[in-house]
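Morning!

This is the sequence you dropped in the shared folder:
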Amino acid sequence: MKPGDIKAHLKKQHERRQQILEKRRNSKFAKKMAPYYKIMNRFSLPLQALWACIINFIIEALSRHSAIAAWQYMTGTPLVFLYNAGMIFVTLLIAYLVRRRVFTRLIISALWLFLGVVNGVMLAKRVTPFNAQDLKTFTEGLSLFTNYFSVAELVMMGIGVPALLIWLVAMWRRAGQYEGKMHRIPMLIIVVAAFFGYSVLTNVAVDKRIISTYFGNIAFAYQDYGLPYCFSASLFNTGISEPNDYNKDTIEKITDNGEMTESTSDNGVRPNVLFVQLESFFDPIEYEDLQMSEDPIPNLRKMFENYSSGYFKVPSVGAGTANTEFEVLTGMNLRYFGPGEYPYKTKLKNQVCESAATAFSAFGYGTHAIHNNGGNFYSRAKVFNNIGFDSFTSKEFMNILQTTENGWSKDDILLTHIKDALDSTEQEDFVFTVSVQGHGNYPTEKVIENPKITVTGAPTEEKNNAWEYYVNQVYEMDQFAGNLVKMMEERGEPTVIVFYGDHLPTMGLEAKDMKNRYLYNTNYVIWDNLGLQKEDRNIPSYQIMADVMDRLGLHSGTVFNYHQQRRQTKDYLKDLELLQYDILYGDQYVYNGKPPITEGHMQMGIKEVTLTDLVENLDETYSLYGTNFTKWSKVYINDEKQESTFLNNTRIELPDSKLKDGDIITVSQVGSSNTIFRTSSEYIYMDGKILEYTDEVKEQLKKEKEQKNSVKTDGDQQKTENAGQSGEQQDQNNKEEKSGQQ
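The structure's back. Tokens below.
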């Protein structure tokens, strides 16, 4: 195509576009809207400011599930409301950079309203509001949709989102364009200046305590500071900002020239150390209004009375399991991170870091993590590998037969896998277990027909039903704790078990509802069979690991050593922030070039899947037999995933597979997003049977093939020789025949 042709085509396309625009300008709809567009253009800034306030009000009404609550928020904290409306107003200024101003405003408005709708829906299903970290685990969260949403709700979402997109396309076609002169460069400068000015205003608002950069509870923060600010903060404000006095000399002073990185022991005691994080656990009698037919935690109550215990200060309320977990395992204080941040989803997802696992490994411990939920949730499979665990057993490696009425795995399944972890090594073990049975949302209708414990005292019948459900889950969690202690007593090995709750349950609790008048306290107890002295005290989650190690005479891990040595000293928290920054975001001066962990080595699961037999059924389907199958076991033939049906831990059905000699069969444990966590050894299908495809088998099959080829070659050669001999004999016979005729 010639340049002239291209130029002519573009000109024709431009003319066609102008005709379309002219037709739209002269349409009945355009003429009808022209006076309104004129007014809107003349008073666009004040109208845009009003529209920003309306959007903000709608967002808060959706988030609070109440227009009245939104009105109270607006009138009760007008500066916060106007600050958030101002943020929306600034984003709407982008419309002045394009001609399709109405459509651009609609798009920006739709995005803000979409945040409000999603947040409102999420808060109706869980206590944690929608934040930027949810976007990073979107595919992982999809696996839990059925736990939170009914089929009807999922269908409505499937219809609503496409409908919104269709409406936006229609508005793009119908909305008018600004016909005045465009001043894009001056407007771009104004828009950039507006965004910069708003960042300055944000700092002023923080200084004046209108808003805060620390979210002790993200749900409360959204209520206090509004969705626009909180979501934006979770999106842009992550990690630990560099402290003013951060340098090598400061870090060397804090760590005694690196001595805190060393591992030492006061004695030869090496017990098994088990940490058990109980989902949403706290002592229900701490809620003053609740009356129960019997004590729901008899086993833990007995431990409270006889072993070290107290309140356990956690970084969140109603949600935030992974953040309590983070503080316990690393000894780091979450307060120094971005508001609403989950380090599991940000820094630790892609970076190695020392932890309790590396600290115990320094003394030769085996280190194991166990959780009866998905291995990908909160990126645990990646995080546990990055912080030094030897193994991680997630639900994909468990045959979960008992679930709660809400569909969460019951905790009793954990006993088997804790035992497997302990049995997998000859030395002592550190086992970190995270339970899930107590997880909300708690049903407001009566779902347990014959509850072990009945509950009264809640303000409404719906709340009473929720509390009764929760208390009965706590009772079973207590039974699990008692059974774990019994199991360890029967093993007869020196052991310490730390039980604690990760946060209060999602019950809308207020400080006035609690006996201790504090929402960030759960309960903990340290059981042991070593005869440790009972020391009751309240302790924050980031200190518990250092405290337990200190009682055992173990000093390992930079941050844990820091807590043991500096907990009661001046500038303790200030220097802790410096230390955390250096380890995670700084130059790691503390290690002097020798970090305790440089890469992960973790394996998923303790027991490997093995295959023992494959039987062809009368209907030409196959039954695969083996060990350690779960419903997350998927069969692959020649690396192609097969349709399969899990029957039990020893049998999987293959309804559509076709096999031939030489096919390679494997079984993988597959998590969400089709993540393959672990794959069995290879097995080869031969003569209707399967055989582990070891190097010896490969060599044997190679020899058999060579022998067959050799026999075939010899046979072919013999046939050739015979054929040659036959030809020679025929020639001789012909000669003799001719001679006789003559």
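Headline: DSSP finds 24 helices and 23 strands in the chain.

More detail when I'm at my desk.
O.
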